[in-house]
Design brief:
Length: 277
């Protein structure tokens, strides 16, 4: 898919692999919506893209607040250029032994890594469906742990790695569920583990030694955004550049339905499939 004249939103694109993807898409001719929390870092990315002849706009939002996610969606919806690609990349890593909560009181990693992307995607679906073809890419991880539906917010037995892995598997269940919902329509939805322990701030804060480059992970994300060979392919999980298999829970229809119902309830949206019944 040529990106010339198209618009892409990449969450968490003021640093790391998100910044790399934003800069590469701008180089391919896309109008890039750069998202982050830190205005100074975001403005530096936008200025760098502009110096290289690209087109970018900065959008500020803290994804630990669903109200700010809604404001972000509203800002994107006001874009006269529309929206052709959404990359849900922003996230929090495994570091931190203390359980933290989002603005709405949800476990922080579940809220930022998964729920924010769920809400943002649902709000932006009309914009994405208004294009001739569009793509959604959810940046997950090979680090996955089955969701405990009796304690999704991990009030008991909390650890940063457990919270991270559960939130990343939630992204994958969401990807598969949404792809099934949109089958036969013009929006492709896929997810991936971009690369193992990329050289990013998130990885360094976790205490892990980087073993992959941002460029490796970025190439895998860009494949899902742009590759013409994936036209018509939806509901897939990739590890790097290759299609792979996620945790078995991702293939359980009952688990996907539980997460779907919970997610709509938590963000305060009605399930469009229920309205059709």
């Amino acid at each position: 898919m040529t990106m010339k004249g198209k618009t892409a939103l990449i969450t968490g694109s003021t640093d790391g692999v998100g910044r790399y993807v934003a800069e590469r898409l701008a180089a391919e001719g896309a109008r890039v919506l750069v998202h982050g929390r830190d205005r100074a870092r975001g403005e530096a990315v936008v200025e760098r893209i502009a110096r290289q002849g690209g087109d970018a706009r900065l959008l500020i939002a803290d994804l630990s607040s669903l109200a700010e996610v809604r404001s972000l969606a509203e800002a994107v919806q006001r874009e006269p250029s529309g929206l052709d690609a959404l990359v849900n990349n922003a996230g929090i890593g495994t570091s931190g032994a203390r359980r933290e909560l989002s603005v709405e009181g949800f476990e922080l990693r579940f809220a930022v890594n998964y729920l924010a992307g769920f809400l943002l995607t649902r709000l932006l679906l009309p914009a994405l469906e208004g294009r001739a073809s569009s793509r959604i890419v959810n940046v997950a991880s090979a680090g996955q742990q089955p969701i405990d539906f009796t304690d999704v917010m991990l009030a008991h037995g909390y650890s940063g790695p457990r919270a991270y892995r559960q939130s990343k598997l939630a992204q994958i269940l969401f990807t598969f569920d949404l792809a099934r919902e949109l089958a036969g329509r013009k929006v492709l939805v896929n997810c991936l583990h971009p690369a193992t322990f990329m050289d990013t701030t998130m990885v360094r804060l976790s205490g892990a030694r980087p073993i992959s480059t941002v460029e490796e992970g970025g190439a895998a994300i860009l494949q899902l955004v742009m590759s013409p060979s994936l036209e018509g392919a939806s509901g897939l999980y990739f590890s790097g550049m290759r299609e792979s298999r996620a945790d078995p829970q991702a293939y359980d229809p009952a688990a996907r339905q539980k997460l779907r119902a919970l997610s709509f309830d938590l963000v305060g949206l009605a399930d469009p499939l229920e309205r059709r019944i």
